[in-house]
Amino acid sequence: MSLGEPTSDSTPFFSDDSEAEGPEEHGRATGEGTEEESASGVSRVRGLLTVSILCYINLLNYMDRFTVAGVLPDIESFFGINDEKSGLLQTVFICSYMFLAPLFGYLGDRYNRKYIMSVGITFWSLVTLASSYTPKEHFWALLLTRGLVGVGEASYSTIAPTIIADLYVKETRTNMLTFFYFAIPVGSGLGYIVGSQVSNAASDWHWALRVTPGLGLIAVFLLLFVVKEPRRGAIEARPENHLRQTSWLTDLQALSKNCSFVLSTFGFTAVAFVTGSLALWAPTFLFRAAVFTGEKTPCAKGQCASIDSLIFGVITCVTGVLGVVSGVQVSRRLRSKTPRADPLVCAAGLLLSAPFLYLAIVFAEASTIATYVFIFLGETFLSMNWAIVADILLYVVVPTRRSTAEALQIVISHLLGDAGSPYLIGVISDSLRKNDSFLWQFRSLQLSLLLCSFVSVVGGAFFLATALFIERDRDRAENYVPTDDEPIVVPKSGRSTRVPVSSVLI
């Protein structure tokens, strides 16, 4: 492949080229094109379109993920299941999503990313549609299809942030990541809203799962025909430092020694634990509180009151936007005073969310209004972490290892976080319940959810520890120079061959 040959869209799916071409290629590309391109090989307008499409898909991902939570009381009534089995719906999804993330991280660092995402989203859309036809006698089929949905989502969430990182740097990258992570709370909130309202309108919760598949296929079309694959690391690469693709084992070893990456990942695990628990159980908890106090009637004929899912969805949307924006703005202002601003803001968000979440859970039976106010404040502080954690990963990890780092962070945060937290909360709730009265249906879930406040404090401690290493690790990533004994991946007859750098003639 000559230096003047473009590699962004012409790169085949099964290609080992890193696409991290240097400034010479950039010069030729800009000289020949009618529209000026950056070093990434993507024009400014195409870059903005790409980020917009990625945000749209991210919104769909989270909208689909929390549609089930929005109709959970209906699902429990339809299948006649307890809290333990209800928690499994989220756990099987997160487990498949988590365990496949390393595979897509490996592929995302080596092959054309938009094609990987397109295949994954198509699969996710079809499986989601299939899950909406689950009959009453086969709850296991719903578990299976929800698990398979995680396959498609893993192909996207692992890779998408690395494309943004290859399009923008510094403050612009932070702004674009902020826009990208708006989709998490907004999509989650829309999942509750759309799920509950579609179910209510159709008088059948199955229809709630038939909204996102069609929107997902539109996303695939946009990916294939609008998004352009940027060159990896080219926008950051310096003339004297051409980035090289190293072996997967080398990548893992380097990431395990990156203290900021490891500690911030554990901090983010606490965020995942709390958000995973609240995402699945909060609407059901609020519904049970209202039934216990006599404000609402129990589920009748398989249909449950949907107002709690609607309100919680609106709160999730608003608090997510406020949290992400405030987190980024506070961090940006503090950066002029301390280079440790990012992990300190993340720590403050978690530590401040803990008491408000505790008060929201405790006040549920006394005052519905107070409960919603405390949930609003707790979720706002919790949402301050989303964009900042992603930014931390991108600037403490070199470009050729970012998809692997994203995958590893997904595995750890979900394995110890929201993969087990919904199921754990359900198990604790069932074990604490003394009988099936409305009192104990509410009280057992209330006591089990108190665990979220404790986990928030632990997560805050991990981010405080991250602040001790953030300056050193950022400098190492920015000034990274491959060593001669570091194995690289060299294409040979269409397959990867690992050889030492010293044996390659440059």
In short:
The chain has a two-stranded antiparallel ribbon.
Description:
With about 500 residues, the protein is mainly α. It has a single domain (about 40-235, about 245-505), classed as MFS general substrate transporter like domains (Growth Hormone, Chain: A), CATH 1.20.1250. It is about 70% helix and about 0% strand. Helix 4 runs antiparallel to helix 17 (about 420-430) and helix 12 packs antiparallel against helix 13. It is globular, with a radius of gyration of 23 Å. About 55% of the residues are buried. Residues about 1-35 and about 490-505 have low confidence and may be disordered.
Annotate the secondary structure layout:
Blueprint: H1 23-32, H2 44-70, H3 72-79, H4 83-108, H5 113-131, H6 139-157, H7 160-165, H8 170-202, H9 212-225, H10 248-256, H11 259-293, H12 307-335, H13 341-362, H14 368-382, H15 386-396, H16 402-418, H17 421-432, H18 438-449, H19 451-466, H20 470-478, E1 488-492, E2 495-499
Antiparallel strand pairs: 1-2
Structural class: mainly alpha
Spatial gap, N to C terminus: 15 Å
Strand order of the largest sheet: 1-2
Q: Which CATH first-tier class would you pick?
A: Mainly Alpha
The main sheet comes to: 2 strands, antiparallel
Total helices: the number is 20
GO biological process, one term: lipid transport
Organism: Anabas testudineus (Climbing perch)
GO cellular component, one term: lysosomal membrane
Main location: membrane
